[in-house]
Amino acid sequence: MPPQQCTAKLEERIMYNEKFMLVTFELVEPSTLEFKAGQYVSIQVDEAGTRRSYSIASRPDIDHGFELAIDVSPAGVGVQFLQSIPLGTEVSVLAPLGTFVIEDDPTEEAIVLVGTGSGIAPLRSIIFDLLQVKQEKRPITLHWGLRYVDSLFWENEFQDLVERFPNFHFHPVISRAVDGWTLCRGRVTDCLSTHELVPNAGYYLCGGKPMIETVVTLLTDKGIAPEHIHHEKFF
């Protein structure tokens, strides 16, 4: 699917907490967008033509628009643009972009997704597509790392999937957990070290460069072949 120039209209903007925001766009021209779970869009964020890229968080079968999960804390030009434009504003979009998609590899008998921060966005799209649309039966495990418990969002969605799909497992990981937090503490690498690695799995990583490099080293040291480690870098 080659990228195409699109026009999209801002439909909704929701602040989940002080750090993360959901932005929903509706396609104007063309009226639909064909993409794969894990891909991203490039949005023009000023009159000079500056662009910023954001992974699509919604399912590919919902092709009349797309959702983005934005970390607002950097407060860069893209964040300022998406926070300030009025609802109904039309923006220029180039999409779909990227190759961070589930590989058609029969040797990957399970799928392990590792994300930090807003790196959860493409993983959410992948998870919803695999479970709700494709009825995937392979084991799927999500490790999602955040600094604070208060920064969590979508945790109820993922927990609902855990209850509905016995092959889905969700491990939120909090690096600065408060007293009483009973789940994984520390970084996602600590969580991966604690849990036994899934054999014959494909590992899909999305987050900052340091996390990607650390997890790749961990997986490689534990015998995971490089061809089964797939990653997207946000920073």
Total domain modules = 2
Through-space gap between termini: 25 Å
**Order of strands in the sheet with most strands:** 4-3-6-1-2-5
Q: Which structural class matches the secondary elements?
A: alpha/beta
Tell me the total number of β-strands.
12
Q: If helices are DSSP runs of H or I spanning 4 or more residues, what is the number of helices?
A: 5
Q: Name the beta content range.
A: 25-35%
CATH superfamily of the largest domain: Nucleotide-binding domain of ferredoxin-NADP reductase (FNR) module
Q: Determine the fraction of residues in helical runs and give it as a percent range.
A: 10-25%
Task: Please name the CATH topology of the largest domain.
Answer: Rossmann fold
What is the second-level CATH architecture of the largest domain? 3-Layer(aba) Sandwich
Look at the structure and give the mean pLDDT.
Answer: 94
Secondary structure blueprint with pairings:
Layout: E1 4-15, E2 20-29, E3 40-44, E4 51-55, E5 65-71, H1 77-84, E6 90-97, E7 110-116, H2 120-133, E8 140-146, H3 155-164, E9 168-174, E10 184-185, H4 188-194, E11 201-207, H5 209-221, E12 229-233
Parallel strand pairs: 7-8, 7-11, 8-9, 9-10, 11-12
Antiparallel strand pairs: 1-2, 1-6, 2-5, 3-4, 3-6
